């Protein structure tokens, strides 16, 4: 499941970015929902929120480390469906943005929530965020087959 999710995110991310680059000049926008969201084509040569501009190889290195970590976690721990989905989203997003950095020397961003003036992002960014969220949710779950403390256990 992990690699299927990663492949799906990667292919969709690259397809959408190609469509944006081919049909929407940099700096131009197309309204999707007036006053709420638009596609606004920018090329981001930094990380999230444009931090560390022009540090392409730093972000490529981070993506390689994430990729190796995901593969090691998958092989060593054989995680459940929630973790596999989270890791797949993380992997697909990391490799999608890494591809942009290596090929384009910047990341194609295009989703802009004008209603809240949020940072412009792309599918890979969203996949990374949701993947990390799923991994965090999983970290708060009790492992199967373990007993959780109850009031009676604490009082005794």
Automatic annotation (TrEMBL):
BP-aspect Gene Ontology terms: proteolysis
Membrane-related topology note: Multi-pass membrane protein
GO molecular-function terms, A-Z: aspartic-type endopeptidase activity
Recorded superkingdom: Bacteria
One Pfam short name: Peptidase_A8
Compartments, as annotated in UniProt: Cell membrane
Membership in a protein family: Belongs to the peptidase A8 family.
Role of this protein: This protein specifically catalyzes the removal of signal peptides from prolipoproteins.
Keyword Ribosomal protein: no
Organism name: Alicyclobacillus acidoterrestris (strain ATCC 49025 / DSM 3922 / CIP 106132 / NCIMB 13137 / GD3B)
Catalytic activity, EC: 3.4.23.36
Any one GO cellular component localisation term in the record: plasma membrane
Record-annotated membrane-spanning stretches: 56-73, 80-98, 110-137
Keyword Nucleotide-binding: no
Reaction catalyzed: Release of signal peptides from bacterial membrane prolipoproteins. Hydrolyzes -Xaa-Yaa-Zaa-|-(S,diacylglyceryl)Cys-, in which Xaa is hydrophobic (preferably Leu), and Yaa (Ala or Ser) and Zaa (Gly or Ala) have small, neutral side chains
Keyword vocabulary terms for this entry: Aspartyl protease, Cell membrane, Hydrolase, Membrane, Protease, Transmembrane, Transmembrane helix
NCBIfam families, per the entry: lspA
Protein name listed in UniProt: Lipoprotein signal peptidase
Origin organism lineage: Bacteria, Bacillati, Bacillota, Bacilli, Bacillales
């Amino acid at each position: 499941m992990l690699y299927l999710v990663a492949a799906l995110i990667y292919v969709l991310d690259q397809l959408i970015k190609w469509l944006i680059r081919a049909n929407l000049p940099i700096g131009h926008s197309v309204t999707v929902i007036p006053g709420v969201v638009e596609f606004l084509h920018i090329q981001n040569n930094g990380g999230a929120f444009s931090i560390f501009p022009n540090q392409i190889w730093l972000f490529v290195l981070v993506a390689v480390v994430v990729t190796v970590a995901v593969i090691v976690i998958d092989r060593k721990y054989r995680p459940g469906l929630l973790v596999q989905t989270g890791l797949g989203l993380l992997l697909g997003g990391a490799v999608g943005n890494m591809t942009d950095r290596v090929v384009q020397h910047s990341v194609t961003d295009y989703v802009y929530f004008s209603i809240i003036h949020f940072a412009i992002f792309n599918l890979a960014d969203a996949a990374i965020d949701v993947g990390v969220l799923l991994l965090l949710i999983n970290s708060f779950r009790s492992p199967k087959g373990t007993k959780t403390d109850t009031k009676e256990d604490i009082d005794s």
